[in-house]
Amino acid sequence: MHILLLTSAFNSLTQRVQAELKDHGHTVAVELTHEDSPLRDVVRREDPDLVVAPFLKTAIPQDVWSVHTCLVVHPGPVGDRGPSSLDWAVHEGADEWGVTVLQANAEMDAGDVWASVACPLPPVAKSDLYRNEIADAAVEAVLLAVGRFASTTYTPAPQNSGAGDGCRPYFGQSLRRIDWQSDSTATVVRKLRGADSQPGVLDGLLGGEWFLHGGHPEFRLRGRPGEVVATRDGAICRATTDGAVWIPELRPRRTPGGPATFKLPATSALAGRLSAVPARPAPLHRTGHEDIWSEISYREEARTGFLSFSFRGGAMSTDQCERLLSAYRFACSRPTSVLVLGGGRDFFSNGIHLNVIEASADPGAESWANINAMDDLVEAVLTTTDRLVVSAMAGNAAAGGVMLALAADEVWCRAGAVLNPHYRLMGLYGSEYWTYTLPRRVGTAVADRLMQEARPVSSGAALRLGLVDRVIECGPQSFASEAGALASRLAALPATQSRVNAKKAEGDQVDLAPYREAELAHMHRIFADPQHPYHGLRRAFVRKERPASGTALHHTAHPQG
User: Fold this and answer.
1) What are the chain's domains?
2) Which of 446, 430, 436, 442 shows the shortest CA–CA distance to 407?
3) Which of 181, 202, 242, 538 is the most exposed, fewest CB within 10 Å of its CB?
4) Neighbours of 20 (CB within 10 A)
5) Is the CB of residue 132 less than 8 Å from the CB of residue 476?
6) Which pLDDT tens digit goes with each residue over 74-94?
7) Cβ(233)–Cβ(222) under 8 Å?
8) Exposed/middle/buried for 472, CB within 10 Å: 0-12, 13-18, 19+?
9) pLDDT band at 37 (very low <50, low <70, confident <90, very high)
10) What CA–CA distances, in Å, run from 298 to 361, 379, 488?
């Protein structure tokens, strides 16, 4: 069928639905909607067999849904309605939730049900749930609904009963407010997780008003409730009544008439206000399963090393790249035969940190520093010849993050991960040795196509193309243990040392310098030119604004041809 996706943003779920529908043989057009979107004209032009709305903040007009079957993806079980479904679920501590695909009609979220799929809700942030458990259920429900529609024999069920709680109101800041003088660590973490990544929790801090983003419990540090007692990995630690929480990011409240604000590492956002706050770094090498929050950690099991990293939104600033490179060098000093990169849950990496770049005094210079730091990290992986390196991608990856994964000897990803192995949508040529690793993986013709078409790739398609070597069929919570068991078996294989020997011989013959020099020549010209589209596209992306006319490079209609 020809399917039109209507969406308010080309977010992770929209990308995954697009890629999965393509894998099932459908042609797909994507239309980003906004207040002045000519939806009626788009629908008339596309004349779709079916309209699907994976992420839509506005109602579909009656003269569209009355002519075309329009299926809306709602992140809640049958009977649940309202704009803050997942927020309420996290707030109330639900351990099971669901996704419903329903038919658009005159009443929001009240249409007939085409499919509904249940899913678990582990105690993690709302945005993490949305990209993983909710996305898994949503794709299953969409494919089921599309199949039922295509059969022409299925009759959707009216919403006259269900497990949901009916239409609930928008989950506003009055419900999210933290009372530092009475809220426990568990309560504060739950409130922070329920607001991540949007809209954040509005709070007063050190003379300013900020939206707090992300939250991790801290059980060892203490202080006066609400006090900032420590910093670590760009995050601040605030005391609660019975412990503390780590808050990785802050976003200043927008002033009336002022420019759009955006999230930054908390210590960067509070620069100059934390001089009396001590840094409390976490140990890199963990000997057990200590409950210590940090962005990077390392552990060993027999002959296998696990270098885990988790950066907010998958973005990696210059500082984060440098810290990860230092940790990687430590991991390579250890007596292991297999080293696993990643392996947690959620994002693997999305490349350079556009928010930190945007906030810098000289975005062009910071872009240059960031891309060189990414290149240094990727080069270290590519030139590791004394062990096998495995990239374990629990979640999505894009741009330089994909190329970081491809630098390893083997690439494993969870079923459901979405890869965007291109840079074009941000106006960039790209670096991270992609001109070496991508053709080596998929061939020159496919590499060129992936770069030019700039479309999301599902895990299944990535396996067929050769971008990844293994797809692990499991839930997000199980990926770390599944990948760990596979890595341990790999380390125990007699053939592993033979592969290491062959890798060293091959590595000694490859001169990587020309690839880096050619890529960086392109990137330097882009970063040094303030009129290049990259700068406008970056600003629009970071500030969540529509790109200025003449800078948009992405055509959403018929994105897969």
Assistant:
1) 2-161 (3.40.50.170), 178-269 (3.10.25.10), 296-542 (3.90.226.10)
2) 436
3) 181
4) 24
5) yes
6) 999 999 999 999 999 999 999
7) no
8) buried
9) confident
10) 34, 20, 15
